[in-house]
Amino acid sequence: MEEKSDIPSEARDDPARSLRMALAFCGLLGVGILAVGAEHPAIRAAAGSVGALSIVTLSWNLRRKVGVNSREAEILAERLVAECDELEQKLSDVREEHQTLERFFDALMEHVPSSLYFKDIDSRFLKVNQKMSEWFRCGHPSDMLGKTDHDFFDVSHADDALKDEREIIRTGQAIVGKIEHEEFHDGKKGWVLTNKMPFRDQSGRVIGTFGMSSDVTELMETRNTLERERNMLRSLIDSFPDRIFVRDPGRQYLVVNRSMAEWAGAKSPTEMLGRRPEDFFPQRVTGKGMDEDLDLLAGEREVVIREWVMTDADGVDHSVVTTKVPWFDVDGRCVGIVGMDRDVSAERRARAELAETQRRLQEVMDNSPAVVSMKSRTGTYLMVNRGFEEMFGLDRQVVLGKTDEDVLGDKEVAQAFRERDREVLESGEVLPLDERFYVDGHPRWYATVRFPLRDDRGEIYAVGGVSTDVTDRREAEDSMRRLNEDLVKVNQDLQRAQEQLIQAEKMESIGRLASGVAHEVKNPLAMIGMGLELLARKVPEEDETARETIERMKRGIERAKRIVRGLVDFSSARQFKLDPACPNSVVKDALSLVEYQLRKEGVTVVEELGETLPQVQIDLPKLEQVLVNLLINAQQAMEKGGTITVRTYETRLSDVKRDEGLRTRSHLRMNDHVVCIEVLDTGPGIPEENLKKIYDPFFTTKPTGVGTGLGLAVSRKIVELHQGRLELLNREDGQGALARITLNACPPVAGEVHAGEAAS
Amino acid sequence: MKSTRLLLIDDEPDFTALLKANLEAAGGFEVREVNDSAKAIDEIWSFKPDLCLIDVVMPGMDGGDVVAKIRQDSALATLPILMLTALVEENPDSDDGETLTGGLPFVSKTSDFERILACIEKHLEEAGV
Description:
The structure holds 2 protein chains of 2 kinds. Chain A is of the alpha+beta class. Chain A folds into 6 domains: 2-108, no CATH class; 114-221, Beta-Lactamase (2-Layer Sandwich), CATH 3.30.450; 240-343, Beta-Lactamase, CATH 3.30.450.20; 367-469, 2-Layer Sandwich (Beta-Lactamase), CATH 3.30.450; 472-572, Signal transduction histidine kinase, dimerisation/phosphotransfer (DHp) domain (Helix Hairpins, Orthogonal Bundle); 575-759, Heat Shock Protein 90, CATH 3.30.565.10. Chain A contains 22 helices and 24 strands. Chain A is rod-shaped. Chain B contains 4 helices and 6 strands; from the N terminus they run E-H-E-H-E-H-E-E-E-H. By secondary structure, chain B is an alpha/beta fold.
């Protein structure tokens, strides 16, 4: 369109010529433009029209003015008509194209998601799209034409818009990407992104403005959220005591927090951005980090965790743990490194102190003679001491974290331990125990205390156990007790010995007295006997009462004589003559003496006599007396009759008791070859309380007049003079009593023994 | 028939009296008692017994001393003597319960009268009385 502004100066001298020249020029220019192809369809259409009109006008003008001959004119006219047709055709094409362009424009206006408007120089709406009219709550875009923002918005908003538009008109400069807060017709508030541009006419003069607005509320909200989160993250990072940093692949800091900046000696985090670690830290510190960064960036490592020691400006060492990971963008590319340095000095110190405390505690426990352990609620060992290791023969590394069932071979012991722990857990109380364990196969006693361990809230989290070996103490106590018992026993023995001594003395006194007493008693007895004899002669046969009385008196004398005879036997110092004899012969002699009486009392005698018994040293009459005594005793024990078994056998002595009489002990020894003579009855047996007293002189269970109480004492003394043993027992089968005479089969001394000597 | 003379030497007059009564009741015996052993020898000489029954335990001269005195006198050496004493028990091995000790027969005072009598008669017979 610039071609119209430049008119040749010679055209002004001759108006007709000038007009022709102008028309020709215009026609050619229009055709030229069409041929060249203008950018804008409207321009092309205009150019086509102008070109065609100029050419038609020119051809007509030329024909009228020149007046040339018709042949030439016809040729010229035909050429012009042809050119004119061609121009008309082109004009039609341009119009069509113009219409297409208008459709495009309308479609654009209608479908673009933004609001579009055109305003004239006075900011009146020239054209708006449907979107715009909807936004302004106008029914149809045409309703807005000729109106201004003041018709739709409050004054301040409309004034702001007007100001913008005037500025654009004044400067010709567009306002691009302006974001404005807007209130929408539905009352919703939001954000609008607006581009405002100058609207020029064909000559480039600004004749108004046009613009496009889009609702960017969502975008803005997202942006605001992001901003908020970024600020929050920033605050967080800045307030974090650990040193946080983000570096790009070139090790330049992208992000650092305050803590990091302080540590690096920078004034602010910003000061560190774009700079490298080397700018703040010595090579010694950064060297290793560089290699790690390269590894992370190359994807060779996923994370780096390293503890190192940093000496600060005051020369204080700090334990630092550095953690670094690669930083990936949304496409998964590694675009840097995120890292954190944590000063763990305090933790390390606390841990070292704790370890030291624990070590001391362990040391104290290990040097304690007690067995100490601590178990969790689930029964796993948390701690044991050396005493524990030694007692169970287990290393603590094996024990810790395991249960009793895991480590103890004896499942019963493990079970017992578990039970006790449970008791403590349930009761929450201290449980004292006496326990016995076998250590190296020897039983050891332990005084154990099991107790609950509680946390700050008072909850039981573990069970502790302390066991002290009290075996020695216990043994000392035991031995003390035994000693005491022995003492008591010795005392008892002493008492018994004393009693025996007293008894022996008593016996001796009795013995000494006996002969005198016997004589003195026997004389009056003899006299009374004589008197009775005499009286019996004088009493008439028919006086039965008198005769009966005399018989009773005679029986009385017999009793007195029997007692005296017993006393004399007991104290007899008569000589004692031992000769080898068969034990069975003594038995037979004795049985023959009492045979009649036994039969009379309904007693059956069973003989179980050994067949090839060795001979024994026997004073036959004395031993016979003993046997008769035992047989009569047996018979008297069985009030309603019964069976007496007489048994002889040889054996090896296996039961010499500690508390046998001294005399017996000196004669009968373990493993001696002995002959036993036993008299067994089927009576009620000997009551327990009488077993010890039966050998005492004058002890008798028989009714008055039946026994003197001297029989067993005398019998025993006689057997002891045979260097043998007389026992009275209850039969093991519970059938009655058993009297057993045990005599050495090979007596050490043969010949005469003085009773007095033997007894002393 | 001439009665057999028995001299009872015993310090117990009650016993000698009763024994004497029994012997006399048994018949055939003339019995004299001596309750003081010191008078025993004189009494033997005066009474001239066929048999002396002598107790052992007596005050002053005991039975042994009396026997010794009798034996010292050759005229009395053969006088039959029976020791009648409470010191011994009846000898169960002999029919009359007598025990011979030191060449003298001993019989227990506490024996039945029948046994004492049997013993006396045995010794009288042995002595040819």
